[in-house]
Amino acid sequence: MEQKLIEQAEQLKDLLRTLNRKFRQYMMAQTVGCGLTVPQLHLMQELFQNPGITLGELSIRLGLAKSTVSGIVDRLEKQNKVIRKRNEQDRRVVHIDLSPQVKELGHNISLMRTNYLASLLASMTQEEITGLLTGLEKINQLMMQETNGPGSADPDLD
To answer: What sequence ranges are listed for the domain HTH marR-type (predicted)?
Structure first.
């Protein structure tokens, strides 16, 4: 592979890692008083956006192993923050949803994330924003093709 591509891939990897870390730090600072960890907040955000998804779907969306997600769900269930519901047609399938009192928190977290990113984008030109979004959409598209292609893991097997 061409050396320049390898260097650019390293730069992209480092940028993504830094962005993820900074975003997590921001979210931790904003939610320090609510008694939830960042993984719990991420899980609850996914449930807010995708109510009633299965544990397998949730693990894929979070990029975590099913066992890890199951542990997070267990802790949140004990705190009455999430609800597990068995599928009526297939009792082996469990759907997870936010408890009614937590749904408002999910809305606030979503709004907080959006406002934070909007404040960052406000420092950029429209051309820079368009270029950023176009590049990220392309990388996302390529990754989706790669992970949905031959040899992709079955989420229900891990």
So the answer is: 9-141
